[in-house]
Write a structure and sequence with these properties.
mainly alpha, elongated, disordered N terminus
């Protein structure tokens, strides 16, 4: 994963860099990356434009920093969700799907930032694609490790099916929202897929 090169040297400039990243992340997620210019970011952060370019060489570097920061925070949340159920893969999967259901149906949810990014930047040569791909590969890998530990007939196929459920909940959240949205059914759907695979293994 690409590491952003920053040039902050003092506590003051580090604080400015962190503030700029927080402000840019909020604007990018809620308004769209292309819709937000450097001028809006520095104005909202209340800093001079030179402060931005001292920390991030370009808007592209700021975009990558936003994606990387979001990715790190996301996996910390997922680790917190799964850690209480260490040793119980079925419980971990249930906790994961419950987390996705809650996340994708809460007010103000704007969808998966990586899918949104890819929609805005379809050219895979853009540096942010490495971060988006890493996030999705990590999701797939974690689901596969869980399905292998559950012990089912086709763990890879089950992991991919679960991945499609997650991505479907992300996408549908932008059209149907609220507590009664279909995204809540992801927990039931995941349980049904697991039971189908587990039953198939028992019959063999």
């Amino acid at each position: 994963m690409r590491t952003i090169t920053t040039t902050h040297r003092t506590n003051g400039s580090k604080t400015a860099s962190e503030k700029l990243l927080r402000v840019a992340s909020d604007l990018f997620y809620n308004k769209g990356i292309r819709a937000v210019g450097v001028e809006e970011i520095v104005a909202t952060a209340g800093v001079a434009k030179i402060s931005l370019y001292r920390s991030f060489r370009s808007k592209d570097d700021l975009i990558v920093a936003y994606l990387e920061s979001n990715n790190e925070a996301f996996w910390r949340e997922i680790d917190a969700v799964c850690s209480p159920h260490e040793g119980d893969p079925r419980a971990q999967l249930h906790a994961l799907m419950s987390y996705v259901a809650q996340r994708t149906t809460k007010p103000g949810y704007r969808g998966c930032p990586y899918i949104s990014y890819c929609g805005e930047f379809p050219d895979h040569s853009h540096p942010g694609h490495r971060v988006a791909e890493a996030n999705k590969r990590e999701w797939r890998g974690r689901l596969l490790r869980i399905t292998e530990r559950i012990g089912v007939r086709e763990p890879k196929r089950l992991a991919d099916g679960l991945m499609l459920l997650v991505e479907g909940a992300y996408a549908l959240s932008q059209a149907l929202t609220g507590a009664g949205a279909p995204g809540r059914a992801i927990v039931w759907a995941a349980d049904a897929l697991v039971e189908n695979q587990a039953a198939g293994r028992r019959r063999r």
